[in-house]
Structures are given as structure tokens and as C-alpha cells.
């Protein structure tokens, strides 16, 4: 079976504020109801006494904690409920699992150990490895240091894909993106009266090829990827505000030239090189926190951020900061955390490669760890950003325009999941609350048929989980 280039996971991000759309909407509606009732019954406005005023209705919370004693679905119940939506050859080569994160019990499975092309659900592996390796409060830094000759400065890539050259007041697709203008201003202040004459671009933080096996260079213009370097602006996007807009083929070079422009220099003074040892730091800017970058990466399915995080995992674990080293260290981090990665084959950190293979069991293992209740010294609360970053069905991210009609509509606002779409690949892995209030994690992976035909089917399976108590 062959897998072609990526065709999916495209969408428009309306804003990070939609991520918790159901909860936010509940709060806003409740607040609006209270405000409206007060306004309509105020004696000053209506000219009536308090006794004549209608009683203010007490708002009923629409959201709350899940019941601790929600019944556990049975294997037989799940099999009966899911057979009609999973027992079809239209899914192609199909594997999946449903797991109860509270107990770790696998409640339903189909070819759970068979490695399948994951698409962007592979980002769950990179996210977990990053949170297992790096502190969620850490940041990625871009700095400028004194160059080797008078008047030269070196901009040193530190892996931050979110550095932007947008002016103040305009936001890029990244959360709390640092600005190139602020970095330039700090450098000019540090240099004082010394004239800046040249800019050197240092990309030595990462090694190896900048394009992975199984990627298609057409995806640069298509907006899915840019060559992976530790220095870039806006993830290599030509339009910093367009999540899926075309990207540049030389992100570090483009960043160096933009920095020279901020300093009032001609692009011809930009060259490649490395910073002198122990050079004086002239300015530094930092990204949003690692946990915020992970949430953004999952919601937007941003391949560049995933690749950066895989390399940063490799660096932190003493590995090679390359595609090979990043993939190896992502799997090693999971193994060390007793999340069994056996059967997985990774050549990148994003799942964009057509070579990647992951068994459904590994996806549910990661999600179950992220959703598990507190367990004392073995608490996995630090993995919660994975759940916070999952798109909401029918609400935001790569699920904004899914779960809209038919049998999948029941999952709107209830299913949260990471999507994975390549030619011949349709995957969905996430969490759902069933009809009895039990939180379940799931992974459904289809290889072979076109996503245009298959993609609604994993949605329908997840929606079926939301409808049943399955006992």
C-alpha cells in the first residue's frame, strides 16, 4: 500500500480563545442570563417595586466535574455499539482501541498492535516526549551576540519557530510570539555608538538534513512545512497571519535578511557562520512556554513546531539534534516513562512523513497517561497540556469543520481529538465522555482509502462512544 503527500489537517484558526469553546460559552451564556435578568427587573429602570419584579432565575451549571463513580463500559457493550460503525471494509486497513484512563483497562480493540501510518496523530508522541523531557514552563530563546569582527553581530537560532517580524499590534498564528523588532532594538542599545555593519546567521544548534525522508517539497508552497532550521520567522510562513499559507524554502536566510532590515542594513551584508565562543550577548527574546507551544501545535497541527520540539527533546537527552536523533529520543523518552513504543517507526516528529508507522496501542497509552487521575508519586498531571491542546469537535482547530452532520453530530463539543490525514491515511485519537459521564480515550486509524471517503467514519465511531454507556 502506498501513501502519497499530505492533503489534510488544513483549517483556519479563528483564535486560541475557542479552544475551550464549550466551557467559555457556558460561562458567557450564564453571565449574560444573570445580567439580562438584573437589567429587566431593576426598579429604577422599570418603575416598579422590588416586590413586583420577577424572580431572577438561578442559572443551572451546564458543565461540572465528571462523576467519580460513573460506571465502566463493558467489553461486550462496546463491541455491540461499535460493530455497526467499525465492521466495514470501507475503513481499509483499520486498527483502534478504547481505554479507560482511570484503570488503564483496554475495553475494546482492533489490530491494536499493528503499526499503521499515523499522519499527524504522531504529534501526540512528540508532545508527550517533550513534556516528559522539558519543563512545561521552559522557553525557546533567540539571541544575538557580538561577532568576530568590529561591527558584526551574530543572530543565533535557538529553535524558536514563533519569532515574528510583525509590528506591535499585529499578532501571528503563534501564542505570545516574540518580535524581531524588539531583538533589534536590544542589540542597537547594547552596541551604543558602535556602528553595526554585518549580520551572521548561526544555525549550528541543529545538524543533519533539513528535509525528512517521506516529505514532499511541494508541501513548502502548500503551507505544510519548511526546511527545519533553528532560526526562522513565523514558522517559515510568507504571511505570518496565515496558518496554512505558503512557506519559504530558506527560513534561516530569510530571518537573517529580515533582521538586517530591522537594523537598517542591506541584505547583502548577511552571511552564514557560527558565534565566537563566549561572545557577549547583545539581546535575547523568548517564545511562549513549552506547554503553550505544545497546545498550539496540537490544535493547529503545526508540523514545524513538532519538528522543533523533537530536536529539543534530543538535545535535552544528549542525542543528535536531527531528524534521526529527534525520532530516536522521542521514542526513548516514552520508553523510559514506561509507555511502550514497540512497533513504532518514526523518521520525523510531526507525522508528515509517509514512512512513519505507529500502533494504535501507543496512541491510547499516551492519552491514558495524560488523562489518568492523580496517583501520588506516579502522577502524570504534567502531561495535561496534551489534553488541553486537543481540538474540540465542531469547535476549533482541525476539528472545527467536522462532526457537523449525520451520525457524527452527537460528538460535537464532547469529543476532543488529534487528527491525522495524509493521502490514504485517516486517523483520530483523543478523549470522549460517554453517556454515563465516564471519560474514555480512543485511537482509530485507517490506511488505504481516500480520506475524502473515510474521514467521516472515525468521527462517527467517536460520536458513538459519546452516545452509549455501553454496558
Helix content: 25-40%
Question: What is the C-alpha radius of gyration, as a whole number of Å?
Answer: 25 Å
Number of strands: 10
> Could you name the ranges where pLDDT drops below 50 across 5 or more consecutive residues?
1-8, 10-50
Basic shape:
elongated
Tell me, rounded to a whole number, the average pLDDT: 88
> Major β-sheet, in short?
5 strands, antiparallel
Number of helices: 14
Judged by helices, strands and strand pairing, the structural class is alpha+beta
In the sheet with the most strands, the strands line up as: 2-1-10-9-8
Distance between the termini: 37 Å
Q: Give the helices and strands as they follow along the chain.
A: HHHEEHEEHEHHEEHHHHHEEEHH
What percentage of amino acids are in beta strands?
5-15%
Descriptive report:
There is one protein chain. With 471 residues, this protein is of the alpha+beta class. It has helices at residues 21-41, 43-46, 75-86, 123-133, 180-191, 218-221, 251-262, 290-300, 303-316, 323-336, 360-371, 384-389, 451-454, 456-467; strands at 93-100, 105-110, 141-146, 152-156, 198-202, 270-272, 281-286, 416-422, 425-433, 439-447. The strands form two sheets. The protein has a five-stranded antiparallel beta sheet, sandwiched between helices. A five-stranded mixed beta sheet has the order 6-5-4-3-7, covered by helices on one side. A hairpin with a 5-residue loop joins strand 9 (425-433) and strand 10 (439-447). The relative contact order is 0.20.
Amino acid at each position: 500500500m502506498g501513501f502519497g503527500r499530505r492533503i489534510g489537517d488544513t483549517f483556519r484558526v479563528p483564535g486560541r480563545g475557542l479552544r475551550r469553546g464549550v466551557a467559555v460559552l457556558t460561562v458567557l451564556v450564564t453571565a449574560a442570563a444573570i445580567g439580562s435578568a438584573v437589567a429587566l427587573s431593576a426598579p429604577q429602570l422599570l418603575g416598579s417595586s422590588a416586590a413586583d419584579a420577577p424572580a431572577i432565575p438561578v442559572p443551572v451549571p451546564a458543565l461540572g466535574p465528571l462523576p467519580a463513580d460513573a460506571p465502566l463500559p463493558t467489553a461486550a457493550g462496546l463491541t455491540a455499539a461499535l460493530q455497526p460503525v467499525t465492521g466495514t471494509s470501507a475503513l481499509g486497513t483499520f486498527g483502534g482501541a478504547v481505554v479507560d484512563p482511570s484503570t488503564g483497562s483496554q475495553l475494546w480493540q482492533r489490530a491494536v498492535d499493528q503499526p499503521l501510518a499515523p499522519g499527524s496523530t504522531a504529534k501526540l508522541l512528540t508532545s508527550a516526549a517533550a513534556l516528559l523531557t522539558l519543563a512545561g514552563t521552559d522557553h525557546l530563546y533567540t539571541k544575538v551576540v557580538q561577532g568576530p569582527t568590529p561591527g558584526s553581530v551574530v543572530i543565533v537560532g535557538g529553535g524558536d519557530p514563533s519569532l515574528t517580524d510583525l509590528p506591535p499590534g499585529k499578532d501571528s498564528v503563534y501564542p505570545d510570539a516574540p518580535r524581531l523588532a524588539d531583538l533589534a532594538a536590544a542589540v542597537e542599545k547594547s552596541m551604543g555608538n558602535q556602528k553595526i555593519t554585518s549580520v551572521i546567521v548561526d544555525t549550528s544548534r541543529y545538524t543533519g538534513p533539513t528535509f525528512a525522508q517521506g516529505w514532499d517539497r511541494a508541501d513548502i508552497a502548500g503551507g505544510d512545512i519548511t526546511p527545519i532550521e533553528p532560526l526562522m520567522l513565523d514558522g517559515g510562513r510568507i504571511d505570518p497571519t496565515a496558518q496554512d499559507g505558503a512557506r519559504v524554502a530558506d527560513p534561516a536566510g530569510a530571518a537573517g535578511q529580515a533582521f538586517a532590515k530591522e537594523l537598517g542594513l542591506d541584505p547583502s551584508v548577511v552571511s552564514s557562520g557560527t558565534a565566537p565562543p563566549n561572545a557577549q550577548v547583545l539581546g535575547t527574546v523568548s517564545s511562549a512556554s513549552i506547554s503553550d507551544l505544545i497546545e498550539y501545535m496540537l490544535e493547529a497541527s503545526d508540523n514545524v513546531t513538532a519538528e522543533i520540539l523533537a530536536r529539543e527533546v534530543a538535545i535535552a537527552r544528549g542525542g543528535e539534534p536531527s531528524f534521526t536523533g529527534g525520532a530516536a529520543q522521542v521514542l526513548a523518552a516514552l520508553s523510559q516513562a514506561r509507555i511502550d513504543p514497540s512497533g513504532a517507526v518514526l523518521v520525523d516528529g510531526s507525522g508528515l512523513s509517509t514512512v512513519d508507522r505507529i500502533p494504535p496501542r501507543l496512541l491510547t497509552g499516551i492519552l491514558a497517561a495524560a488523562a489518568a487521575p492523580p496517583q501520588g508519586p506516579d502522577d502524570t498531571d504534567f502531561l495535561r497540556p496534551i489534553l488541553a491542546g486537543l481540538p474540540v469537535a465542531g469547535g476549533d482547530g482541525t476539528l472545527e469543520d467536522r462532526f457537523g452532520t449525520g451520525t457524527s453530530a452527537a460528538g460535537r463539543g464532547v469529543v476532543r481529538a488529534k487528527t491525522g490525514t495524509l493521502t490514504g491515511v485517516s486517523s483520530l485519537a483523543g478523549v470522549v465522555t460517554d453517556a454515563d459521564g465516564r471519560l474514555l480515550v480512543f485511537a482509530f486509524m485507517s490506511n488505504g482509502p481516500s480520506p475524502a471517503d473515510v474521514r467521516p467514519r472515525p468521527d462517527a465511531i467517536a460520536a458513538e462512544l459519546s452516545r452509549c454507556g455501553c454496558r
